[in-house]
Amino acid sequence: MLSYLRRSWSVVNLDAIAHNVHALQARLSSPNCKLMGVVKADAYGHGDKFVADQLVRLGVRWFGVSNLEEALSLRMQGIFHPILIFGFTPADQAGVLGEYNLTQTVYSLEYGRSLQVAAEEADVTVNVHIKVDTGMSRLGFILTGQYFAEAVSEITQVCSLPRLHAEGIYTHFASADELTGDGEEFTRSQFRLFQNTVEELEARGLRFALRHCCNSAATINYPEMHLDMVRPGIALYGLAPSADCAGKLDLRPAMELFSTIAQVKTVPSGAVVSYGRCYTARRDTVIAAVAIGYADGFERELSNKARVLIRGSYAKVIGRVCMDQLMLDVTHIPGVQAGDLVTIVGADGEGSLTFDEMARLSGTISYEKICLIGKRVPRIYRRGGKDVGVADYVHRQKE
User: Fold this and answer.
1) Percent of the chain scored above 90 by pLDDT?
2) Averaged over 15-20, what is the pLDDT?
3) Is 40 a catalytic residue?
4) For the domain with range 255-364, which CATH number is right: 3.40.190.100, 2.60.40.3450, 3.40.50.300, 2.40.37.10?
5) CA 367, CA 349: separation in Å to the nearest integer?
């Protein structure tokens, strides 16, 4: 049996990730279209090492991360396939980019020139992808309206820099997960602008091996926009990007979250529960204290709102969620005792709970929920019904 502290823990089903990858691959518009596994933010809280290893087993050969630290984490854990860094890397790290064969996003002429100088000093060539801003108004050469000609000129200059190898160009959709209102038209306008940019650059003799613009939502909703590569993130982990995307692809959530009851006791009518006394028992109430709190990713915003599963029955969170614990009303569940399993996300009997439900209760999205699972919550990896590995961040940091 794998060793880990059974206080609060998550289980990551690698078979579910495999299922999701196969579903996404079946959605691709062309057998030549590549699938990039987006594993930023520690694989959306699922653990970069085990997820990336599983993706390699499934034939994925490109990975996307947010920053240099995440890219180096993959390299140090044996992932040697191409890695694209989406975000900012200080130009003076060009030597590291070159040494570890990492691909950096270039989003402005100024940054491209700085990276060129640093790469020349380090005597390396840096692989880059050009990021264009077609309406997200985040990183990228801005292309809208009057800025188009200037952006094309600046991209051309970046691609002429001898220490930068521009192998790809991409953009990011702002509302590909919105199929109501003008969301679809906005996405199509972004795609048209991206295509126009690529065509203008090709007219200047610049051809890119990889053109890509589809996140999870666009991969699902717009197969005609797949081009050379797609970049699914949230869908890899079995969660729909939005309600508009739900049910369009057969996805299986990869992560479940569990905890343990620390104590069960009965408090009298009128007793107040937890910080701020925001819950008062209206009758004699059986309360279970559970060993999970906001430091583990169960947000304080869920106080007096969320529910969990114990012995196949739902139990409501009462009182304020604490840093390390929360309280439940288990009066209606017979025989609850210390040590009982608590299902935070997952299935128990006929009941089930999802990250989407938690997200709705706290006014956010499932992306945020899975990324907030704390580092003191070990991740247990399961394949073929067997536990095959543990990512225990606290223990690893002590070694």
Assistant:
1) 96
2) 98
3) yes
4) 2.40.37.10
5) 26
14-236 CATH fold: TIM Barrel (3.20.20)
Does the structure show a pLDDT above 70 at 397? no
Which one of 44, 170, 237, 275 is the catalytic residue? Answer: 275
Helix (H) or strand (E) holding 104: strand 103-106
Quick check: is 381 catalytic? Answer: no
Residue 318: pLDDT band with limits 50, 70, 90: very high
Total Cβ atoms within 10 A of residue 345: 25
Could you give the residue range(s) of every CATH 2.40.37.10 domain in the chain? 255-364
pLDDT in tens, 120-160: 999 999 999 999 999 999 999 999 999 999 999 999 999 99
Give alpha helix (H) positions in 204-261: 216-221
34, 40, 49, 131: the catalytic one is: 40
Query: Which residues, 6 or more positions from 45, have their beta carbon under 8 angstroms from its beta carbon?
Result: 255, 297, 370, 371, 372, 373
Task: Report the run of H or E that residue 40 belongs to, with start and end.
Answer: helix 40-44
- Cβ 373 vs Cβ 41: under 8 Å: no
> Are 297 and 372 in contact, with CB atoms under 8 Å apart?
yes
148, burial (CB in 10 Å: exposed 0-12, middle 13-18, buried 19+): middle
State the CB neighbour count (10 A cutoff) for residue 396.
11
Confidence of residue 203 (pLDDT cuts 50, 70, 90): very high
Q: What are 64's two structure tokens? A: 């996307």
Report yes or no: 291 and 5 within 8 Å, Cβ to Cβ. Answer: no
Stretch 290-311: mean pLDDT? 98
